[in-house]
Give the backbone structure.
Amino acid sequence: MTEVLKIEHLHKTFEAGTLNENHVLKGINLNVEKDDFISIIGGNGAGKSTFLNSVAGSFPIDYGRIILENKDITELPANKRAKYISRVFQDTKMGTASRLTIEENLSVAMRRGQKRGLSRGIKEKDRIFFKNELKKLQLGLEDRLKMEVGLLSGGQRQALTLLMATLVTPKLLLLDEHTAALDPKTSQMVTELTDQLVLEKKIPTLMITHNMQHAIDQGNRLIMLHDGNIVVDIKEEEKRNLTVMELIDLFQMKSGSNLVDDSLILG
C-alpha cells in the first residue's frame, strides 16, 4: 500500500481564550492509503466537518501536520491546496457557477491548478471530451452543453459537480455529506456515481455521511469520530460484515458513551 495522506496530532480550537472556547479536534492521527475510500461518521459536534475543513485548508490549525504525498501542506491556504484536493459540498450550488453553461463549468474544472491566461474559448476536442464524460452520468447532459447550470435540478447539478471534481484526477477527494440534501432516489443515483468515479479513477477519498448504513455500504474503510478523536477505525471484510447495531455497540464500547444522535441511525 502507498500512503497518500498523513495527519499527525491535529488540534483545532475555536474562540480560544474566551468563555466560548471550543476544542473541537483533540490530536487526530490518520494515515490514508492510495486505495482508501473512507466513510466518516459521528454525532453532532463530533468534529467531522471541522476535520474535513482542516484537511481542505479552510482555516489554520492550532497544532499538528498534514502531509499529502510527502509534501507538507499544513501552512498552505485552501486556494493553494485546491490544486491537489477536490471537494463536493452538501449544498448543490457550491461546486458550480450558475450563470455559466455546462461546458464552461467543465472547462474551468479541466484547468484546475493550471496558470490562468487568455484562450480562444472552448475547443471542439474539449467538447468531445466533455460529452464522453457527461455520458457517464446517464442524465442526457451531453446534449445540453450550452445550457446554464442554474437551470439544472439539484440532483443534476450535484452529479455535474462530482464529475467536475474528478475531471482532473485529484490527489484527494473530500465529500462533505454530498447526498444529504437530495431526495432518496437522486441520492442513490449520486451515490452510485460516486462509487463509479472513485473506483474508476482510483481516487483516495474521505466522505462524511450522516447515515450509518451508508457508511457501512460505501468505501473500504470506516472511521467514527467522538469528542474530537477517532474512536472507531475498521477496514475491508470487518467493515462489510457489520450491521448498524453492531457499529453502535462498537462505538459505545470504544467511546464509553451512548449514541444519542438518531439521525445517524435513521437518516
Summary: The CA atoms of residues 223 and 233 lie 4 Å apart.
